[in-house]
């Protein structure tokens, strides 16, 4: 490949118009998993609104409008189409919480990583030590933790808390990277993105959805662990494609497509194609590994991995139509 990658061309099947950046993504991204939707989505939507109001999060200026643009219950429905209504509600509220938390962290971290510390330390204290919250956002997290403990086994709830702490730590790394963006290369970006994705905290809920617990050997099998990493990366990198225009305009850094654009000094369209190559390879590896291990998995193990499939599929279908990322349709497919 050349230094700029501008020679990358788009393969377009006959008769399919490619006019916007969203069309470019749809044409080149390989999504082998069919669209599914949870039948309890409308209940989850109402539940999210009530839960955010209960903890005072929509009293904060801009949050209600952000939630309307983001549609967390829709993302929960698309990623978790087979969950019962109770678990779906937890997933939807957790997604909503993470968007509120993430946006506030970005706002604070933009000024200084140090301004994030009280917010992040409160979250870690709640998740690790069970301390009482001191803010509405902390109270919402404590309530999520309570709901998870009610639906999950102690081991599953512990995994949920650990993965959630990883997400919290990732936001501090992101703030540090934003403070000195010229030092952030693609590899650094993907390492931080794997934490800030916030996808893996949902996987213990898919454990809880199974009729019996996974065995430790199955849960910690190297192939299953690799599937977890691949699915989270594929899901969040796909969202990065559609959010790239929004995040570029906002001056954000931790996005796979924008990282390729910085590193190769190319157009956003060429960077999107480079990111798609990476995502397609990741999804192909996931499929191959899943085919290899599926005969060895218990029914619970298959259900758990299907939860990972849901995030790959769901993030794509949600990202391409959600108002939060509508800017992707304002940019032409050609540079």
From TrEMBL:
It holds the Pfam family Terpene_syn_C_2. InterPro entries: Amorph_synthase (IPR048138), Isoprenoid_synthase_dom_sf (IPR008949). It comes from the Bacteria. NCBIfam families: amorph_syn. This is Sesquiterpene cyclase.
């Amino acid at each position: 490949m050349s230094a700029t990658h501008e020679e990358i061309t788009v393969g377009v099947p006959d008769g399919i118009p490619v006019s916007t950046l969203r069309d470019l993504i749809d044409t080149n991204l390989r999504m082998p998993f069919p669209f599914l939707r949870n039948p309890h989505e409308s209940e989850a939507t109402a539940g999210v609104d009530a839960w955010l109001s209960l903890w005072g999060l929509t009293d904060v200026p801009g949050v209600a409008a952000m939630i309307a643009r983001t549609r967390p219950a829709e993302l929960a429905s698309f990623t978790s189409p087979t969950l019962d209504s109770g678990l779906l509600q937890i997933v939807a509220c957790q997604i909503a919480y993470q968007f509120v938390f993430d946006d506030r962290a970005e706002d604070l971290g933009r000024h200084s990583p140090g301004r994030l510390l009280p917010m992040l330390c409160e979250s870690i204290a709640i998740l690790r030590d069970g301390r009482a919250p001191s803010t509405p956002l902390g109270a919402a997290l404590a309530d999520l933790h309570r709901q998870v403990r009610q639906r999950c086994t102690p081991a599953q709830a512990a995994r949920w808390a650990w993965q959630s702490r990883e997400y919290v730590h990732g936001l501090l790394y992101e703030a540090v990277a934003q403070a000195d963006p010229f030092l952030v290369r693609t590899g650094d970006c993907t390492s931080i993105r794997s934490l800030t994705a916030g996808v893996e905290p949902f996987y213990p809920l898919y454990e809880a959805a199974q009729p019996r617990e996974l065995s430790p050997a199955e849960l910690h099998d190297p192939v299953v662990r690799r599937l977890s990493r691949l699915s989270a990366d594929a899901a969040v990198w796909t969202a990065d494609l559609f959010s790239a225009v929004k995040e570029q305009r906002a001056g954000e850094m931790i996005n796979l497509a924008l990282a390729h654009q910085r590193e190769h000094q190319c157009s956003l369209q060429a960077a999107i194609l480079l990111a798609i190559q990476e995502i397609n390879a990741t999804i192909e590896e996931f499929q191959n590994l899943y085919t290899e291990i599926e005969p060895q998995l218990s029914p619970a193990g298959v259900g758990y991995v299907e939860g990972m499939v849901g995030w790959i599929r769901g993030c794509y279908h949600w990202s391409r139509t959600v108002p939060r990322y509508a800017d992707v349709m304002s940019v032409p497919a050609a540079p």
